[in-house]
Amino acid sequence: EVQLVESGGGLVQAGGSLRLSCAASGFTFDGYGLGWFRQAPGKEREGVSCISSVGGRTFYINSVKGRFTISRDNAKNTVHLQMNSLKPEDTAVYYCHFQLNWGQGTQVTVSS
Length: 112
Known about the structure:
This protein is mainly beta. It is built from no helices and eleven strands. The relative contact order is 0.32.
């Protein structure tokens, strides 16, 4: 059974940083890419970033380029999202995603 468990969310002031983590289990972690999505209140869920199986390729949506960094530790079956220079518009529930599987989400709130 695939399990994805996010952590690291919280309340931070604009300009601050947070590091999200997603602990994965139930599949061959280093064989697949993973991604982070987010869903703000009243908005659709959107893809934020993804990373290839060995981390050599990454993708970011324009609004987070230069501020967010996705990485993975295949030895620990974990993927991270380092978020710097946070803005109020980054406020959302952030989800780890693998194929058709989602974690429970972690709330990120950025105050102005």
